[in-house]
Task: inverse folding
């Protein structure tokens, strides 16, 4: 059984700095963009959001479903919450983040399954690879939604 970790300890573990410390954003960007694999990108990206998703979505789901499915569903839930937030601000029906985040969740599982690693490359190259994954999935979902609406 996993020991529960506090938000402060989780953020420090992922970010290298205490919660709210000066330089936190810089560390998060450096660590996430420079991650040696797309699945590792998410270990560092937005540790506060990741803490709550891990604790309240991923952990309960992984007790019922295989880890890969729990991961994809966790990404979908995150996307759904982003869609709801945008809907509350714009008062318009939005269904964009859910498919985008679901696709990224699938990409995380596939890249991890095939051990896709760019850890041996320079930080700039790793950052480019990670941004290609994020940006490419964004463009793919936008293209798919454009085709669906045509």
Result:
């Amino acid at each position: 059984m996993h020991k529960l970790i506090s938000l402060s300890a989780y953020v420090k573990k992922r970010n290298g700095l205490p919660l709210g410390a000066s330089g936190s954003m810089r560390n998060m960007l450096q660590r996430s963009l420079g991650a040696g694999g797309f699945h590792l990108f998410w270990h560092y990206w937005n540790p506060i959001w990741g803490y709550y998703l891990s604790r309240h979505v991923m952990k309960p789901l992984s007790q019922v479903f295989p880890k890969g499915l729990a991961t994809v569903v966790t990404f979908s839930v995150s996307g759904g919450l982003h869609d709801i937030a945008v809907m509350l601000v714009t008062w318009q029906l939005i269904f964009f983040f859910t498919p985008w985040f679901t696709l990224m969740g699938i990409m995380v599982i596939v890249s991890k399954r095939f051990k896709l690693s760019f850890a041996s490359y320079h930080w700039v190259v790793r950052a480019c690879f990670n941004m290609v994954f994020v940006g490419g999935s964004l463009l793919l979902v936008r293209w798919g939604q454009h085709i669906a609406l045509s």
Notes: Residues 123-149 form the longest helix (27 residues). The chain has a mean pLDDT of 95. The chain is about 75% helix and 0% strand.
